[in-house]
């Protein structure tokens, strides 16, 4: 029977100061982590530093370090990430972390009066759960320590630490004992959680599409079938909807409704259909959409981002693979086809998608008609640009038909297959660092190693759990498969060389920020390592520190070299900018000169146009005068001709009159 020594404990804040002194802090606000690093790993030293500053000084008000010093930057980030945490809470968490790293610290503290110590049985009130790792079974010990002689508080908050040289190994999948009538076995169904109730809709069983709606209450692990009522006329659905059996669709929880988007049906429509199930009235309705709707499909990914659905890929009714991108605004029910820049993922279906920081859409895996993929693509929803980042860690094997769900910055991937066999690993991707880790591996032909299964996040007894259901791996499943509680056990493991030291130094602090935010709302579960030998641990810590220092030095050299190159490039760009400004000034002057010449030419052209108009007017006047002149000339000629004719007649009349004896005067009068 294992024995350990337990102390009745000092009261706070004396207990905190004793722990701080033992850890290596000298009591001043400017304490460094040098003394602390000699006893603990670098990530733990950073956490203790931040908590010590928070407890003794208060919230961080210092500006962010500007120098190229990753250690100082990490220390500042560790402290600043605690926000407005109370001093008492920081003291308590400081002591708890110290007890996790060195359970016997108090008995070795020399600066304080030793208190009575009693022997306790370590096996008392001890729970040992088996953990299967790489086929081997190890006992997992979880204990809750007693502080200040009082019973421990209720522990209902899990901590997931991802720091230097450590990863979190989660509890194994377990099969819950369920009651009620189980739904028909299926795959390619839709699943969503509302108020700790997992809803299952549709799916494929032996080639037949289903349209039933089932619900599993994770609080009692009881199955029940939802009785759908006849719908009523509404503006959204003009007539009651007889729900069509489908598979390969996506089920999304939206307020008090469940949205079923796309999917394969026996008689497919031309465009994607959006159906809504009202949880209050238990009725289905067809949602009326506007804009150009995408072509009907199944096996697509549908991701809820704010008040919009982002749809990518899939396979249409003619088995043609797609890689188009569409967004449906749920407030206006309007479709928008997105033409993103960059290289999109190749056409595929049965992939997984997740949203990170409400900005980045991640696409992983999927398959074509001939092969499966394990590539990772990221779409920036602000710039609408595709990119393909470099993956780190244990990159998963190619797969399709897998399921994924996000918990904080972690994206869990379960199941899937490669057209030969199902995938047995449960993997997780840190979406900030893009580092993959294997959470656990299942053995045998179980539903988790299936294609077309579903995965959701629910809660049970105040703990977040993953719930998988259904799938097909040669036979259909109708079990809620297994559930996985998010309870970590810290294990030492090498960090990939491709992960930079700066990232490694800051990741634990970034993880701590989210953990402490949750820790202020609830209590934090303690993780106690049993049978710890302090000397080997100290040696490992020293080795880790030496490796960290060497890595930081190399990183510093690289950064200095990069800085020199950047400075040189900056000077070159500055000179080019100055030359460009000079050229721009000359061109501007030339442009102004050309503009002046153009204005002068325009003025001259205007004058010429006026002169031309005047000349045209004069020409018209001259033509009129010429016509009048010609008329006068004709009139003159006619007058002259008439006068000549009259003169001739006068002459003729005088001769004949004389011959006839007519007097000349009479002839003139007659004339």
Describe the model.
- This protein is α+β, with helices and mostly antiparallel strands and 671 residues long.
- It contains 9 helices and 31 strands.
- It has helices spanning 14-23, 34-37, 42-56, 70-80, 87-101, 105-108, 501-521, 534-660, 664-670, and strands at 3-7, 117-121, 127-133, 136-142, 166-170, 190-194, 197-205, 208-217, 222-225, 250-254, 257-261, 274-278, 283-286, 297-298, 301-305, 308-316, 321-329, 334-338, 352-356, 360-364, 376-380, 385-387, 392-393, 403-407, 410-414, 425-430, 435-441, 454-460, 463-469, 483-485, 488-492.
- The strands form 9 sheets. Strands 14, 15, 16, 17 and 18 form a 5-stranded antiparallel beta sheet that branches. Strands 23-27-26-25-24 form a 5-stranded mixed beta sheet, with no helix packed on it.
- Strand 21 (376-380) and strand 22 form a beta hairpin.
- The longest helix is centred in the C-terminal third of the chain and has 127 residues, at 534-660.
- It starts with a strand and ends with a helix.
- Mean pLDDT is 78; it is low at 1-9, 110-170, 233-238 and 487-537.
